[in-house]
Each structure stands twice: as structure tokens, then as C-alpha cells.
Amino acid sequence: MTLLAALVEADNMDCVTITTFDKNGKMVGLGHPQKKTSRFIEIVESGMDYDIVAVSGNDTVRLEVSTKKSDSYFARQNPLELEPIVFPKTGIHHEDTDDLFSVVSLNRQIGVEDGEPSVWKSWITTDENPYTVQIMSLRKRLRPEQLRKLDKDNVAEYRYKDGWFVYSYGAYSSYSEAVKEQEKIRRNTPYKDSFSRRGKQYLRFIKK
After folding, report:
1. Is residue 99 classed exposed, middle or buried when 0-12, 13-18 and 19+ CB atoms within 10 A define those classes?
2. Fewest CB atoms less than 10 Å from the CB: which of 100, 104, 129, 198?
3. If we measure between CA atoms, which residue out of 141, 173, 139, 170 comes closest to residue 156?
């Protein structure tokens, strides 16, 4: 089996439906992006070709995917990363839109617990380098001495509304560049479930 994975970018994830078909037109998967990660995940039979159809309102995005017999679902830390599924902006304002992005306000919102400032960066991506690699999420704040084999000066902390602390590493100009760094992190550090995403997607989850 092969584990397929893709980043999804849409104004409203609740409106996105993704269907996977084999080349005979048979539906082999139907689902939605994961809300917290904005990722599409699907398990398919290896060694076959698939059509992935993502729909949001009146917009449709299609991907053609070829899998190899060697693609193994059991190597969970190495899913087959697909190109991002990106829907056009509708102009409707949500919590993760550009007009709500403010480093000043984020410094007040993110990485603060019991009045103590965070030792981590409060934000790491920019318009020029919008992608990052999420390395972990924890119930309790990460201490600097707990970080393994990564530069702490390149780590950002986001405090979610549900109480989780989420950590991402680096800022990259493209999704493919972030995925390359993600693979290095998976190979060389304990963070085997790291994945790439657009930094501004954190805005919908952070504590206000």
C-alpha cells in the first residue's frame, strides 16, 4: 500500500471534498483535508495510477498520480508527497487571511503562558518564504534543552486555542523546498512525522 499526502490551500477547508479514482474510473477514496494540518491523506494500492479530484464550491483541482510497487505505506515517515492542492481565493475573509497578519499582534497571542515570554520565535515565515516544516505538537511547552539536532534559533512556537503547543522549523520559498528540508529532518532527527505547510495556516488555530 502507498500513503499519499498533499497540502491543501483553500479559504474554507470544510467545503473541500477530495475523491480518488483508479484509471478505470472506480472510486477508491473519498474524504476531506485534516483541519489542523490542512493535509489530504489517502491510502491506495501500490503500483497503480490514480486521478485525484478535489472540489471546493464551483472550483475543481485535478491531480494525476503514479505509484510504484516500491512505495510502501508501512514506511509511514515517508509518504508519497504530491504537489499542493490550491484553490483560488474567494475574497471572503477568514482568520488566516493576509489582512489579519500582524507580527505585533502575533507576539501578544503566541507562545505566552502564565505571563512568561516564549524563548522561541513567535513567527518564522514571510511573504517571500511562506512555507515551513512542522516538527511537533505538545501538550506542554518545549524547553530549549529538549530540542534535538536542530537549531533552536530557527524554531517558531504557536499556542493553539485547544491548549496545544505547535513547533515549526525554518522558512522556505516553495513547497518543494520545504519538503526537501522535511525529508532531511525525518532522516537526521527524532522528528519522523514532520511535514510541510504554509505558515499562515497557523493563524486559524492560534490562541487569541
Report:
1. exposed
2. 104
3. 170
CB–CB of 33/39 below 8 Å? yes
Which of these, 56, 71, 76, 86, lies nearest to 174 by C-alpha position? 86
Q: How confident is the model at residue 36 (pLDDT cuts 50, 70, 90)?
A: confident
pLDDT digits (tens, 9 = 90+) for 150-194: 999 999 999 888 888 899 999 999 988 999 999 999 899 988 888
Which sign does the torsion angle of CA 35, 177, 76, 141 carry? negative
The residue behind cell 537526521 is: 188
End-to-end CA distance of the chain, in Å?
Answer: 41
Cβ(179)–Cβ(172) under 8 Å? no
What local confidence, expressed as pLDDT, does residue 138 receive?
Answer: 85
Among the ranges given (2-11, 40-49, 64-73, 116-125), the one the predictor scored with the smallest mean pLDDT:
64-73
The model's pTM is 0.56
